[in-house]
Design a protein that fits this description.
Layout: H1 3-25, E1 32-38, E2 43-48, E3 54-59, E4 64-69, E5 78-82, E6 87-89, E7 100-106, E8 112-118
Length: about 120
């Protein structure tokens, strides 16, 4: 392989990497964001979305779980977090809004609450 071919290959690879990075960093203004703050106990959580998709994640006591959804998740979400002490059912009205942060807190008393904030 000649130095010219190698140089062209490096330039093309750099352009591909830069393009992928730009796509990943470009978040649409109506993206939905989720922040789960855990003040209770280590928890394994499962979210079942209205469209049939589901997602599982774990969050340790005192930690946070963050996720950005660039593709809109419509409808109510059934969510359950299981801890060694109990299962926390997230209120049936739980959902995420366009262009907002949904802040969900697993409280120290073993209950959950959520609120919304505009994306900044």
């Amino acid at each position: 392989m000649s130095p010219v071919h190698l140089g062209v290959g490096i330039v093309i690879a750099a352009l591909v990497v830069a393009g992928l990075a730009a796509l990943e960093l470009n978040t649409p203004p109506d993206a939905q964001r989720l922040l789960v703050k855990n003040d209770f106990a280590d928890a394994d959580c499962r979210m079942d979305f209205a469209n049939g998709a589901n997602e599982s994640f774990s969050v340790r006591k005192g930690a946070e779980h963050r996720k950005t959804y660039k593709v809109y998740r419509e409808g109510f979400i059934n969510m359950r977090c299981t801890t060694p002490a109990r299962t926390i059912e997230i209120p049936g009205s739980f959902h995420m809004r366009h262009g907002e942060l949904t802040r969900l807190t697993l409280k120290a008393d073993g209950t959950a609450e959520y609120a919304f904030e505009r994306n900044r």
